[in-house]
Amino acid sequence: xxxxxxDRFRAAIDEKGAELSSLIGKSDGTEYVWQGDPNIWARxxxxxxxxxxxxxxxxxxxxxxxxxxxxxxxxxxxxxxxxKQCSPSCVELTLVQNDITKRxxxxxxxxxxxxxxxxxxxxxxxxxxNPNDIPLYYEVGGHDGYNICLSEGETxxxxxxxxxxxxxxxxxxxxxxxxLTGESDTVLLDDGRLWIDRETFRTDAIMMESPxxxxxxxxxxxxxxxxxxxxxxxDYVGIWSAYKPFDVPYVCIEPWSTLPDCSFLGQELEKKVGxxxxxxxxxxxxxxxxIVSE
Length: 294
Known about the structure:
By secondary structure, the protein is an all-beta fold. Helices cover 2% and strands 43% of the residues. The protein has a nine-stranded antiparallel sheet, with no helix packed on it. It has a four-stranded antiparallel sheet with strand order 11-22-21-18, with no helix packed on it. A three-stranded antiparallel sheet has the order 1-2-3, with no helix packed on it.
């Protein structure tokens, strides 16, 4: 575990998956990251790489070759190395190709996750380097779970996700195989608020294109604490929590580079909606930031 700290917050980063495991406010000890529960959802904030979501037939193709890979890819389950401890409030963790990744993803690559704790903001940079002489296709995203019900007596029905600058959202439709259909619905919000209750995620995540949505804020009507996720570099976003027959006190905000598989497209990685492409011997960086208001 790697720890970051400044005068306001402490963060813990697990080398497995370069996963944010804790973010605590020093003023009152509030934990803002979901701490995991095997009976609900055991993870905290897994990295999605090199694919996002479910794949049609549980595989994709690249240059005519089929590759099987788990939902959301292998990034969340592999050990990253600490490549640079920049300061007490900044660290870089890196994953490169190995025999395990090559069976699922044929490229050589270097993916560095840089966390920087600055005031009330935790910035997460995804730095993808392509050492190959051919273009590299990949997908990357976040799946960060944030605690709700932060005060005594609070219920999930007190929580909402605030959309900025709009009073409607357009969730993408899923078919019976939980693949995107290419269609969307229009859902009116309550003055920009998506209220949370037990039924909000009955049909899985709320997935959206985000040309006008570049930040979402988790709020409560019972207190002033807020968690904002700003994701200017990501064109898609999901909102999710486990669907259970009881209240589940967390919500995930998920910035995605790429959409999960669509029923109307084939399995070619390079043709997926929003797939990223890094030119030979080049790199690119995609960033999202968690902002805590106390």
